[in-house]
Structure prediction request, 364 residues.
Amino acid sequence: MRIKDVVAFLEEKAPVWLQENYDNAGLIVGQTATEVTGILVCLDSTEEVIREAVSLGCNLVVAHHPIVFSGLKRLTGRTYVERTVITAIQHNVAIYAIHTNLDNVAHGVNREICQRLGLLRTRTLRPKEELLCKVHVYVPATHLEEVNTAAFKAGAGRIGLYDECSFQVEGTGTYRPTEASQPYSGAAGIRSIEREYKVEYLVPLHVRHEVLAAIRNAHPYEEMAYDFEPLLNEWQTVGSGMIGELPEPEELLTFLQRVKTTFGSGAIRYTRSQIKQVKTVAVCGGSGSFLIKNAVAEGAHVYITADVKYHEFFDAGESMTLADIGHFESERYTIDLLSDWLAEKFPTFAIRKSGIVTNPINYL
Ligand SMILES: [Zn+2]
Prediction:
């Protein structure tokens, strides 16, 4: 198994194009053709974690946080980032980061948090918009099935938990082949009247070229008629944060105490509100202040996140308790998530979880 096989698997789970534009997810150190000896999963690929990988015989570190965010202009070991990269290169250890792309998929960081809290009926708190388009294609009845199959296989027609979604309506198409054409049916200079279907599929923008190529391959016409339309729709399964419900309401402080224990928080900073009983809970692993207003608007009783600044606590208002449980703590189960994925995909391979607590914050 080579690094590129691991990368391909992880990017099928959490495509890199879903990362935020400030992020630097992907292979940061190393070469894709290198044979993998073992994988060490961690939150932060610090110098200590690289040394741990070496001692365990692992030459690939899969981290949640990218060690390099902005560019490196020199590698002299002045910062912990430079020292980590130098150590990794010296020991032939590759570093791969799966960050906001893992935050933004419905089965990623936030689902793991929801599961640990026992939340049901979970959905994305702020789905992403403008990542979808619609294609209409005009297909002769003889090739409807072939075109459908090709389009679905290329990634068209997926809506939430359903795939192979399309809408098709029968109609009549006309065309007149010119002398230079080689028509599938009909003859030059004579108007053809064909029984055709107009088929519509929802297509993620990033695969539209692949979908178009697949449809074109399956379509019999020399000139295929089609339209792509941009959509403003939200993509329900892609976006930031999650919201769900507890099976039974819990008293606020009892719930927060359970959160503290579950995530091993040294302290939880929270706001008082009118909420006494908790049923609806929003979550966002890591720095989630940008979703406070969304959590309020969606009716969350408690919003669990981290890295909240003093003034941002006021934004929670009276209708919701905002709880900062710590960045490391909120994402700690991401290590289990990633190692479970990798162990399931590569069952005979050494997948190790880092034993080093990389949380730089201590509580007194
Ligand atoms: Zn984080």
